[in-house]
Design goal:
This protein is 46% helix and 0% strand. The chain is mainly α.
Length: 59
């Protein structure tokens, strides 16, 4: 995979936390976070991305 398209550590971590939560598994325990706020930051704003074709605008 092209280096620019590889997910970052935090993107992978965010996805795993989201998937654990969705599966009914405690993500805080799995991530070994001592603070629930940290786990919440990883899970906040997790959205399903949809890729669309780029467009150019003439101004």
């Amino acid at each position: 995979m092209d280096k620019t398209k590889r997910p970052t550590f935090h993107e992978i971590r965010s996805l795993s936390i989201h998937m654990y939560k969705k599966s009914g598994i405690d993500p805080q325990e799995r991530a070994a976070h001592t603070d629930a706020k940290t786990t919440k930051k990883y899970d906040e704003g997790h959205v399903q991305w949809v890729q669309i074709q780029a467009a150019e605008l003439a101004v």
